Amino acid sequence: MNPFRVAIAVGAALVVTVCPSLTPTKTLAATKSDSGHDARAEIAASQAVAPGGIDELKAVEIGGIKQWISVRGNNRDNPILLFLHGGPGSPMMPESWTFQRPWEDFFTVVQWDQRGAGKTLSAAGRKVDPSLSISRMQADTEELIQFLLKSYEKKKLFLLGHSWGSVLGVRVAQHRPEWLYAYIGIGQVVNMRRNEAVGYEMTLSHAQEVRNESAISELKSIAPYPNSDGSIPLSKTLTERKWDIAFGGFVYGRSAADGPKRRALSSAYSDYDDRSAELGESSSLQILWPEVTAVNFDDVVAFECPVFVFAGNHDWTTPASLAEEFYKHIQAPEKKFFKIDHAAHYVVNEAPGEVLMHLVVDVRPLYKNMSYQQ
Q: Rounded distance, CA 6 to CA 32, Å?
């Protein structure tokens, strides 16, 4: 998920608020024009894959509608890594240029704008999809995996889920483990009600530690959070996320994020797509929030594929303590947990080198391990 849009964005930090200090996309476009350079084109040139590699941006039919994917890699013999973005409705495709190019030396990386998000929402004429549900989007994920395996003649792939994407990732790993070399969870959602309770306490504790009276007052005003009956009102979540982000529990050491700026520089996106992404974050949240708040993987124990979990040590959005508890609880053919010290919720952006090191050293070797290819 990506923060600070025109209205709201969600994730398993599933929700964040607007940051008015960010430069609007329109202003960025004007700056590019005034400079005489096409920043999107220059960034695209700097990200070029090697001759013979894969660089495809296309719409494919998934679940009865056109859905957009980006497929990039330096070597067609590399394994596929499918990245499930957060949100729901917050595409990583237009921000992936900031970290993904080195990954493409080792994986064929697929970014997918899910139903109701980004370019896929653009393709639907920005019409809100009333069929949005967790089960519908799990079915989309599984159909896309089948498409990718057939199209690129692969037996299996690596599935990476970030934040909201980790909800889909766990469900697919449970349902179709035979399609996966491994499942990789980043900003792993475990139990939304516990997630929100722990994150809230961390945010309030920090507010008290730094004696921020405005934060203390606003955070105490939403107590109990979640509600005593277990419900999680969106209005309360927005208040919690406001201070979570301000105190660096979303991006470590920073009180704001520049997602819209990165998105505006992506060669994969037009200005129309930028706006679609903003609208998709809001509409996906409104439709899916009741289901998302009920997510609970406490009883998920056995996996039939390897599982790797990455957690930012300073993540208050999907707290690292819950991710580590989940990791210790599960059984899998192989499993590893990576706590990234100088990162919060956006681990792939905050510590791209450390994440890539573990992907190459610890995860990718499963591609050559025949015991997982049967």
A: 21
